[in-house]
Amino acid sequence: MTIRILVTDDHSVVRQGLKMFLRLDPELEVVGEASDGEEAVRLAHSLQPDVVLMDLMMPVMDGITATQVIRRELPDVEVVALTSVLEDEAVIGAVKAGAIGYLLKNTEADELCKAIKAAAAGQVQLSPQAAARLMREVRAPDTPEALTEREVEVLRLLAQGKANKEIASALHVSETTIKTHVSNILLKLKVPSRTQAALYAVKIGLVSPE
């Protein structure tokens, strides 16, 4: 099973470079490229990739808005923000919009491949700096719907950075069941991404910040 990727960046040199080294990994396949957020949304609908690599600063529609639209309209597509800035505003904006990962453009090629695979597996990965900034920002829903006991277990494992497959085997259920639980958790907590659900779990003391 290859992981299908849509590369979004307004610089064609960056897109070519990304495609070049992503091609070296047999588990990854670049299925399309977009030069702005609007094109990314359109292609995400037609290509149904597993992961969108999303630049944040782009013309027509910026990456944060595009992430928001993709996560709302295509909840199965994960978005990894890829940017040259580590400003609070960008980190917070991207994660609030629903990005599961946040990487800087100076990330090593193998790190990027690892992050794409983690995102496709539903694994929350944040650099410690990004996590610290986000913790200050994450708003717990005013009155979250109560989670079932099983949903709390799933949320705890998700917040520990476990992938869907690992959560499924820990709880002796199928991966599809876990995906359903995660969708229900996001609905109940009124958050668009697993990352925000994980931060919420830390905030309420369900897991320790480590």
User: Roughly what fraction of the amino acids lie in strands?
Assistant: 5-15%
Helix content: 40-55%
How many discrete structural domains?
A: 2
Fourth CATH level, the homologous superfamily of the largest domain: Response regulator
Radius of gyration: 16 Å
CATH topology of the largest domain: Rossmann fold
**Which ranges are low-confidence, i.e. pLDDT below 50, for 5 or more consecutive residues?**
none
The CATH class name of the largest domain reads Alpha Beta
Sheet with most strands = 5 strands, parallel
Indicate the overall shape: globular
The span between the termini is 32 Å
Number of strands: 5
- Backbone structural class: alpha/beta
Secondary-structure arrangement, i.e. CATH architecture of the largest domain: 3-Layer(aba) Sandwich
Question: What's the rounded overall pLDDT mean?
Answer: 83
